[in-house]
Input
Amino acid sequence: MNKDVIIALDFPGKAETLDFLGQFTGRKPFVKIGMELYYAEGPEIVRAIKTRGHRIFLDLKLHDIPNTVKRAMAVLSRLDVDMVNVHAAGASAMMRGALEGLTRPDGTRPLLIAVTQLTSTDQAALQKELLIDVPMEETVLRYAKNAAESGLDGVVCSPLEAQGVKARCGASFLTVTPGIRFADGDAGDQKRVMTPERAGQGGSDYIVVGRPITQAADPAAAYARCLREFLGA
Ligand code: C5P
Output
């Protein structure tokens, strides 16, 4: 299993995105394409970035009936991305459908991970709106367990939850963790943050880093620092 830094390409369109990626002249970063960029530019942006040699996490968080998710995943598998995701709240039948749809005729497939609870959901919303009457951490671990039993490769979770997920689901079950900030950086709207170094020591396999790299004066230098701190190299 390879630990890596994934840069969140939270840009509105193709021009800004390709300008940004043009600054990385050495190692080609693993990147995340989210809903904003994908809905603006469509599958073409995936192909354009893939052609430039990047690994891609397509972060579209699918959540629908199993048959629909299965068919949508079959389409995404043809885009040659490296990682995709679903909401674990869609339950096990949907996750198994996703896995089936994603598997190409030759047996290969991108990594499939599940979102447990969005970090924007707090305990009050869980109880009062979603009527889930157990502590947040317990739902995260249970959703992770459901994902593991459905055959998925891992989950998106807070770096603070990564060790608990590994303890429940096994060391090889992947943890992909956003909410990363440099020790001397600005947290912005992220409430619970961790440095790349501590995330690396604490059980994160992949860290997802947006603004600390995209908004840096020198993004390539910020990326190199992030890799150095995370991998302890
Ligand atoms: O700029 P920043 O480093 O906060 O970006 C984090 C990225 O990870 C964003 O693309 C955000 O949407 C995503 N993300 C997150 N928290 C989650 C799930 C995804 O910050 N729970």
